[in-house]
User: Fold this.
Amino acid sequence: MRRRLLVVLLLFASLAVYGFMVPLCMTVSTSRTQELWLNRFVYAGWFADLAGKSMDSGDRKPLVDEMERYRELYSERILVVDASGVEFANTGVDTSARGVENAVVAVRSNRHATGPPHRLRTWDPDTMLVASPIGSGLHIRGAVVIEASTVRAKSEITGLWALISLGASTALTLFTGVALGLSRWLLRPLFKLSDSVAALTETLPRPPDKNHSPSKTVSDSYGGYFGPPEIQELARSFDSMSTAVSDSVHSQRQLVADTAHAIRNPLAALAIRLQAMEKVIPEQARTSFLRASSQVDRLTAILDGLLKLAVAETPVGYDPAQSDAHWPDRCDVMRVVEDRVEEWQVAFEVANMTLTAEYSLSVIEAAIPADALAQILDIALSNSCRYAGSGAATEVRVRGESERATISVVDNGIGVSEDEITKLTTRFFRGASAVPGGTGLGLPIASALVQRYRGELLIAPVTPHGLHVALRLPPVKPERPMSRGTA
Assistant:
């Protein structure tokens, strides 16, 4: 791909450089040709005036002397003829040459050239004829023809062309160096990425039948590949990676389901057997029995938490509950908050705590399903009810900020130390002041759910004591119009 990129860059550079060089060379040649022509045309006019005076006086000597002096100065010959075409004075011009005859005829018929026939080129003849009439209008008394030398002008043009070509070659060389460095700088990360992706793709399993792959919806989003072969190969590698990731997510969900089925049944059977044995347990072993029963309950709670966490960490696109295109992906925040606050009122009263709500909006929607938002609020309110302490007050606040809904659960309870704040969303972490009975999975589940729906969960201490859990919900995106042909 680098070779093709260099070819394209150098092609455009060559077109640009030569597109500038060729017109510049033509301009230089035209300018030098016009300079030579105008200079010799002025001299021809001056000799025409001098020849007219010599014809009037009949004395050719002053004219011939000036013509010889001009020949010594410029090494150029001059021919003067009268109105009948008879030679009047000549310093060496070949009158039998076809070009000279044509120039004399054109001047005598008043059709002589008033400009150079074309711009000089290095391969043109070494002489150029410049003619001027003697007299004016209808009174043409003869003609003056200067056989001007183009050697010096062509040499200057050749030198300027060489200088322009050298500059163009230098510019093209510099651009080639820049193109080499730029292509290396641009494509080196791509090559490294391609090699890394290719190496990773080689280690990924490939499904034997794509039509029956659980990742069919991901793979089918890729059609034909276009562009350089390296980019096509990279695209195919990314396609394989996305397929493998999709299959991995599906396997993870299947593992969670199998694990739930495999572990729940033995735990349920164990719990039933313990309940059946409770009546025959001796008094001296009752304490150990109760501890075993509590451990079974704790394992059941941990299993439930792990299952919820696994579901919460599953990307939205792989949620079976959202396979229906009409599954609700938004909710009325105020309705969900009011429902959960009302539901938790009894629990807070039993715990000798107060629960209040403060709303600054009447209706606000967020891009999150109602059941997911309810689960997050249940976790925050459950933690406050369990760990804030007797006599604490908890307040639920709802605010609207930049089209986002922000729900805050604030209490003035025991709180959490500064060094433990950042650990609260870590799995199985329990604070030093936490009461027994929790699993350490509540806030990790809430954090995973919030991230799953592109929201933000913030936890901060309250001064002088207490905890502030803020949930920033994503705004609802405007619905796109249905395209034609869509059912």
Remarks:
- The chain has three domains: 2-157, 229-318, 328-473.
- Residues 2-57 form the longest helix (56 residues).
- The two ends are 43 Å apart (CA to CA).
- The chain has eleven helices and eleven strands.
